[in-house]
Design goal:
single chain, 2 domains, six-stranded antiparallel beta barrel
């Protein structure tokens, strides 16, 4: 389980043939093979590592449903280590089970923040509620507004500077994970 509080961004070193390698941030010195890391919201298992990089297997389903398949060497990703049982819980419950992708269709500066509007499929849109939680590229965010095909989140300066969301442009794809509580309630209806 993750919280959506991004710990670092890292450069993609290689992607292809079902493998992804990214830079290993200094703060991730406690990692080991078999550990789970959220890579832009996608829960991946470390299968190899050295002092400078992590390597992950990436399944065909992950390539189809997430932005991982479109990554190129030199792109950046958000990273978060799995939450330890004794850890401080911030953000919201994020499983790293990306349900699909959205497309950035608006970015408007409003005061000190940026309002990012994302178009999603009808299936995802029905699980996104005003003032609810959503993970965008693994970042825990509060939904500021909901449209018929879109939702909007407000990115504070810290989020803009500390994640890859501050570099998103019109047409960019992002990974979406809706709130597990909303998904569960809708499934039980």
């Amino acid at each position: 389980m993750f919280t959506g509080i991004i710990e670092a961004t890292a450069k993609v070193l290689a992607q292809g043939q079902g493998r992804l390698s990214v830079e290993r941030p200094r703060a991730f010195g406690d990692m080991r093979e078999g550990a789970s890391i959220s890579v832009s919201g996608v829960c991946l298992t470390v299968i190899g590592m050295d002092d400078h990089s992590f390597t992950f297997d990436v399944m065909p389903e992950t390539i189809r449903k997430t932005t991982i398949g479109g990554l190129a060497t030199g792109d950046f990703v958000n990273l978060e280590r799995a939450l330890p049982a004794h850890g401080r819980f911030e953000g919201h419950v994020v499983q790293g089970h990306v349900e699909g992708m959205g497309e950035v269709v608006g970015a408007v500066r409003e005061g000190g923040d940026v309002r990012l509007t994302i178009r999603v499929s009808p299936a995802l849109r029905k699980m996104i509620v005003p003032k609810g939680s959503v993970a965008v590229d693994g970042v825990s965010l509060t939904v500021a507004a909901v449209g018929t095909e879109t939702f909007t989140v407000a990115l504070i300066p810290m989020t803009l500077a500390g994640t890859i969301l501050g570099k998103k442009r019109m047409g960019d794809r992002v990974n979406i994970e809706t709130d597990i509580l909303v998904r569960t309630l809708l499934a039980l209806r």
